[in-house]
């Protein structure tokens, strides 16, 4: 298969061919992506800028129809698109199919949001005058998306951008051109006017500076690494460009003495290892109170060792491969450093041989790493979690909050009092009670605190905050 950029209503020929690898089977590449240069990114910005005024004037019915049509096709083809996604990213087929389904639902949700836009009419404090508060589109927005959710994250940025009347340049991660191309292919048949949506396959170091420097790009939404996010914040700050960042995290799951242990083990396993731990919402710090620590540790260890790691498309597989060799080496390096600093390996970390050559790693559980150990501070983005024992709930809450990040925090408990207290005092944008830290709904806000996020929330009706600007009009009839 060939994966190409889509600019000004047309798929673009040429570009530098780059193999789209299949991390489950290195002998069977998914296809070929074609990376463009800076001139093409400029052309995409030009097209989006040209299309912006008329798309800003488009009505809610037109926006609803387009988004609804895109959502319907994604949902109808979820199996097929799921296979493509699983093949290029490595998450299992059920995970990939569910992600495609989520992308379809996101388009449906924002189709509805296009119809639900309205302002506010208020009496002025001056007699005979009234004020009207409305939201207007920003113009061109740049969307930079990561490889771990190759269709859901583009969808949750793109759908609100279009619903609220913006035009778009989407720059997906280099590792996953296939899902982005498939989305563009669906959009190309959706009757969205040319130039409203543009896809550029290009290196981040090529596309990023163009999106930052072009004044026509009013705002950038980015999901990815903290280092790149901070650079973008500095560069966009200088230019007063609106910015939304979703970056790393080091999410705690706190298991209390009164937890349902089967449920707690299930939350830990799902949160830490599903999607191969390659999620910013992954439970990478599992914290357990002393009374139940030994029992929980034994059950968690047994469940981790029982996980079936393998080819993403095989029906028995629960945990797919790590996305590529670079990410594999990075996880191995983090593990080695943790062991050097004194952490004890409970299980995992070895390379697993399967029928196909892929980046398969046995899920890793570590214990004995202190709160200041690097492994409890940095995001690993792989199948690795630490287990820490604390004396009681208060110590657990303090440890859970002891992080430079704050995306998701989970607690497993049967106590309403502790659940309520944790909900209020967890320093995170997402709190999960008796649920895995990963896995979120599409119709409510998503985002974190501290080093995890910056700018307005994504998803749900909250997305309007980022993708629109407020205008207040004073009228004396
Ligand atoms: C989820 O856990 O369902 O990059 C969503 C990420 C997040 C999305 C997680 N932005 O992992």
SSE blueprint and pairings:
Blueprint: E1 2-3, E2 6-7, E3 10-11, E4 16-20, E5 31-35, H1 38-56, H2 60-76, H3 78-89, H4 93-115, E6 120-123, E7 130-137, E8 140-144, H5 152-163, E9 167-171, H6 177-188, E10 197-199, H7 204-213, E11 217-223, H8 226-238, E12 242-246, E13 251-255, H9 261-273, E14 283-289, H10 290-305, H11 325-340, E15 344-347, E16 364-367, E17 384-390, H12 393-401, E18 405-406, E19 408-412, H13 416-425, E20 430-433, E21 449-450, E22 453-454, H14 464-467, E23 468-475
Parallel strand pairs: 1-5, 8-9, 8-11, 9-10, 11-12, 13-14, 13-19, 14-17, 16-17, 19-20
Antiparallel strand pairs: 2-3, 4-5, 6-7, 7-23, 12-22, 15-16, 18-21
Helix pairs in contact: 1-7, 2-4, 3-4, 3-6, 4-5, 9-10
2-aminohexanedioic acid is lined by residues 146, 148-149, 223, 246, 279-281, 438-440.
What does this structure look like?
The protein folds into 2 domains: 270 residues, Aldehyde Dehydrogenase, Chain A, domain 1 (3-Layer(aba) Sandwich), CATH 3.40.605; 182 residues, Aldehyde Dehydrogenase, Chain A, domain 2 (3-Layer(aba) Sandwich). Helix content is 39%, strand content 22%. Strand 11, helix 8 and strand 12 form a beta-alpha-beta unit. Helix 2 packs antiparallel against helix 4. The structure holds 2-aminohexanedioic acid.
What structural class do helix, strand and pairing data support? Answer: alpha/beta
CATH top level class name of the largest domain: Alpha Beta
Helix proportion of residues, in percent? 25-40%
List the domain count as a whole number: 2
The CATH architecture classification of the largest domain is: 3-Layer(aba) Sandwich
Spatial order of strands in the largest sheet: 15-16-17-14-13-19-20
- Report on the biggest sheet: 7 strands, mixed
Q: Which word captures the global form?
A: globular
At the fourth level of CATH, the homologous superfamily of the largest domain is Aldehyde Dehydrogenase, Chain A, domain 1
Question: Rg, please?
Answer: 23 Å
CATH topology of the largest domain: Aldehyde Dehydrogenase, Chain A, domain 1
- Helix count equals 14
The parts where pLDDT drops under 50 for at least 5 residues are none
Mean pLDDT: 98
Tally of strands: 23
């Amino acid at each position: 298969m060939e994966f190409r950029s889509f600019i000004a209503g047309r798929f673009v020929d040429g570009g530098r061919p780059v193999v789209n690898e299949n991390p489950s089977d290195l002998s069977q590449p998914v296809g070929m992506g074609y990376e463009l240069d800076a001139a093409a990114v400029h052309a995409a910005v030009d097209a989006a800028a040209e299309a912006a005024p008329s798309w800003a004037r488009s009505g809610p019915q037109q926006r609803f129809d387009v988004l609804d049509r895109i959502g319907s096709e994604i949902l109808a083809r979820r199996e097929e698109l799921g296979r493509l996604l699983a093949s290029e990213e490595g998450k299992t087929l059920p995970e990939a199919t569910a992600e495609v389904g989520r992308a379809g639902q996101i388009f449906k949700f924002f189709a509805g949001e296009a119809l639900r836009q309205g302002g506010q009419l208020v009496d002025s404090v001056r007699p005979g005058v009234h004020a009207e508060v409305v939201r207007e589109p920003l113009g061109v927005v740049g969307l930079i998306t990561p490889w771990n959710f190759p269709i859901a994250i583009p969808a949750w940025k793109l759908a609100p951008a279009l619903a609220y009347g913006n035009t778009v340049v989407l720059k997906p991660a280099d590792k996953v051109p296939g899902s982005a191309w498939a989305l563009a292919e669906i959009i190309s048949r959706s009757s969205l006017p040319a130039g409203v949506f543009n896809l550029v396959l290009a290196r981040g170091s090529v596309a990023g500076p163009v999106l930052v420097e072009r004044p026509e790009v009013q705002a950038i939404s980015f999901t990815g690494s903290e280092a790149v996010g901070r650079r973008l914040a500095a560069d966009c700050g200088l230019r007063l460009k609106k910015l939304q960042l979703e970056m790393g995290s080091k999410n705690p799951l706190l298991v209390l003495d009164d937890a349902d242990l089967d449920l707690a083990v299930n939350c830990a396993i799902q949160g830490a290892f599903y999607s191969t731990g390659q999620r910013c919402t992954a439970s990478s710090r599992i914290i357990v109170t002393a009374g139940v620590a030994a029992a929980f540790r034994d059950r968690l260890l047994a469940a981790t060792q029982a996980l079936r790691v393998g080819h993403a498309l095989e029906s028995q597989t629960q945990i797919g491969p790590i996305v590529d060799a670079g990410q594999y080496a990075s996880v191995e390096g983090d593990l080695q450093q943790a062991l050097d600093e004194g952490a004890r390996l409970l299980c995992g970390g070895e390379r697993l041989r399967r029928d196909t050559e892929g980046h398969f790693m046995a899920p890793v559980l570590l214990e004995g790493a202190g709160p200041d150990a690097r492994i409890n501070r940095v995001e690993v983005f792989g199948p690795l979690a630490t287990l820490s024992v604390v004396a009681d709930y208060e110590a657990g809450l303090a440890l859970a909050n002891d992080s430079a990040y704050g995306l998701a925090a989970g607690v497993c408990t049967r106590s309403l009092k502790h659940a309520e207290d944790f909900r209020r005092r967890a320093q995170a944008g997402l709190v999960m009670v008796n649920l895995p830290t990963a896995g979120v709904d599409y119709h409510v806000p998503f985002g974190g605190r501290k080093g995890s996020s910056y700018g307005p929330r994504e998803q749900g009706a909250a997305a309007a905050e980022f993708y629109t600007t407020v205008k207040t009009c004073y009228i004396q009839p």
